[in-house]
């Protein structure tokens, strides 16, 4: 009995070793137990404890969507934004927009203002970018900004350097009102942003 | 004998099931065995066997550097590039440029042409982007383009849609000559690209 039982166990063990070897080939080794668990992705933007937006970083590596230009010389010397506006959207919200044609909760858009640096270049007469002048940010967040029209809040870090390091939310009348009244698609002037239009043509 | 052997096998099988359950908890499931091994990073650009450049993809997710504008109405109706020029650099070459202020071998820059779509918007009078119109590409490669001045080759996929799917290298006289004579920094008009200037200020 014992002998038989042992031989049965040995047979079972042999199968086990075989399976263990096979499973070593079939499965990836687990991550080393000393490794820290994967960190959560860094937040796109951060706020101070009193609700100011900290100046975003890294947005020049985000998705560029377009550049409106309203120079002073075409606006009686008094354009609201006399600079080039280089406009970006965060990459994850862009991916969502491509799929759905909608701006997801958490979308961050950046308007970086760049002076008109020169009016003539080897390529001809026109408008050529000078230096960074300003930084405006808008964020859609139905929880944090539940009282803002469309859930979009607007922040300005200034239109000349040095910029603010933290910016309070602008009153609705300062930015949101114009976006609400004039932007066809969910508070964003998508019609001036060919990269957005091409990414989600059905949202035109 | 048979009974004993069977009970041994059953015991072995029980252990096996236990271990199998444990190993399911300890190791990640293997990737499906039909999956290909991890691919090498895709080449930034591809060429046909006769040296034409295939139309690049994904560049709207690259690093935007600036937007010159030379509209027809400021150039007697005959601008060389009457559109907005949205200019991008590939991300790895941008990272290298940030560190060194130099364009590495393999740098790819894109000039995407976008029509002037309208001249007035809620923000004022000016120039506002319409639709994509053209695509020009320049690549620095001291091996593939060893005979080009500065090792930069220039390709145009056309200035109206539909674009070419493959583009031959332009003759030096078509693009390189103007870049060589007029661009201060290594064939690139960096002075009109604030993102490049800010990334590597010492290279101004």
Helix content of chain A: 10-25%
The count of β-strands of chain A is 7
| Side-by-side strand order of the widest sheet of chain A | 2-3-4-5-6
For the termini of chain A, the CA-CA separation is 81 Å
The helix/strand order of chain A is HEEEHEEEEHH
The pair of chains with the biggest contact is: A-B, 65 and 67 residues
User: Can you tell me the CATH class of chain A?
Assistant: Alpha Beta
Radius of gyration of chain A: 28 Å
> What kind of oligomer do you see?
homodimer
So, the CATH homologous superfamily of chain A?
A: Cytochrome P460
Class derived from helix and strand content of chain A: alpha+beta
Q: What percent strand of chain A?
A: 15-25%
Q: What is the CATH T-level topology of chain A?
A: Chalcone isomerase
Defining traits:
7 strands; homodimer; 5-stranded antiparallel sheet; 204 residues; two-stranded antiparallel sheet; alpha+beta; Chalcone isomerase
Please outline what is shown here.
Chain A contains four helices and seven strands. Chain A is of the alpha+beta class and 204 residues long.
Structural commentary:
Chain A is an alpha+beta fold and 204 residues long. The first copy, chain A, has a single domain (54-199), classed as Chalcone isomerase, CATH 3.50.70. Chain A is built from four helices and seven strands; from the N terminus they run H-E-E-E-H-E-E-E-E-H-H. Chain A has helices spanning 2-26, 91-100, 176-182, 194-199, and strands spanning 53-54, 63-66, 84-89, 108-121, 124-140, 152-156, 166-167. In chain A, the strands form two sheets. In chain A, strands 2-3-4-5-6 form a five-stranded antiparallel sheet. A two-stranded antiparallel ribbon of chain A has the order 1-7. The first copy, chain A, is globular. The termini of chain A are far apart. Residues 1-35 of chain A have low confidence and may be disordered. At the A-B interface, helix 1, strand 2, strand 3, strand 4 and strand 5 of A face helix 1, strand 2, strand 3, strand 4 and strand 5 of B.
């Amino acid at each position: 009995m014992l002998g038989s039982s042992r031989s049965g166990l040995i047979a079972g063990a042999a199968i086990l070793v075989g399976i263990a070897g096979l499973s070593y080939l079939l499965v990836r080794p687990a991550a080393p137990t000393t490794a820290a668990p994967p960190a959560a992705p860094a937040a796109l933007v951060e706020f101070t404890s009193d609700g100011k937006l900290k100046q975003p970083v890294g947005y020049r590596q985000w998705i560029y969507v377009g550049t409106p230009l309203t120079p002073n010389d075409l606006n009686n010397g008094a354009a609201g934004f006399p600079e080039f506006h280089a406009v970006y959207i965060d990459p994850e919200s862009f991916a969502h927009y491509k799929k759905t044609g909608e701006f997801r909760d958490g979308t961050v858009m950046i308007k970086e203002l760049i002076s008109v640096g020169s009016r003539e270049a080897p390529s001809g007469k026109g408008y050529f970018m000078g230096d960074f002048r300003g930084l405006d940010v808008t964020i859609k967040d139905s929880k944090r900004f539940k009282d803002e029209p469309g859930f979009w809040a607007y922040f300005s870090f200034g239109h000349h350097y040095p910029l603010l390091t933290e910016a309070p939310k602008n009153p609705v009348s300062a930015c949101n009102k114009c976006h609400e009244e004039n932007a066809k698609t969910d508070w964003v002037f998508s019609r001036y942003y060919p990269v957005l239009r091409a990414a989600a043509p059905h949202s035109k």
